[in-house]
Write a structure and sequence with these properties.
about 180 residues, alpha/beta, 2-enoyl-CoA Hydratase, Chain A, domain 1, 7-stranded mixed sheet, about 20% strand
Length: about 180
């Protein structure tokens, strides 16, 4: 959702990524970004456990393509999973020292009504591998970190340390 709470200085707009990243949120954010298309600065407040990868990529593209000269992610208590995708849309990323910043590979959960044959498992595996590749390459492009370093961190399946995030370009500043 895009807000101008307490009317920030002219030319500054705020995007709030609070709660689950899903298609409803993505649509709301894109509509809000359109409403503030002339903003010179975009502040993206993130506090999410994540959500849908495709919805996060939709938000990512909306932020990346926005014409604001400055795009800053302000990370609250958590920036996890799909939230990391959204954060990397910004050119500057600031997190709190106590924030949980957690990345992992893409996953899927079969529906209860689905019948998963070996063929279906193989198709799902290939699709997840393609999404992982897309995501990890975007992370490398946006941070400058090596793919093998990012992959190793994602495979740990636990929050990343602030110093690791700073060293590898995921965040630019850690505040108390």
């Amino acid at each position: 959702m895009v807000r101008n709470r307490r009317e920030p200085p002219e030319g500054i707009a705020e995007v709030r990524i609070i709660g689950e990243v899903d298609w409803t949120m993505a649509t709301s954010v894109l509509d809000g970004l359109d409403a503030v298309r002339n903003a010179k600065e975009l502040r993206v407040v993130i506090d999410t456990r994540g959500g849908d990868y495709h919805a996060a990529m939709r938000v990512y593209r909306g932020i990346r393509w926005h014409q604001a000269e400055t795009k800053t992610a302000l990370i609250g208590s958590k920036c996890q999973s799909a939230g990391v995708v959204v954060a990397l849309a910004c050119d500057r990323r600031v997190m709190r020292a106590d924030s949980s910043f957690f990345m992992h590979l893409v996953s899927d959960i079969p529906g209860e009504a689905d019948r998963w044959t070996v063929r279906r498992h193989m198709q799902a595996s290939r699709a997840l591998q393609a999404l992982d590749s897309e995501m990890l390459n975007m992370f490398a492009d946006r941070t400058g970190a090596a793919l093998d370093v990012i992959l190793a961190e994602a495979l740990k399946e636990q929050p990343s340390e602030p110093d690791w995030l700073m060293r590898h370009g995921f965040v630019h500043e850690v505040v108390a």
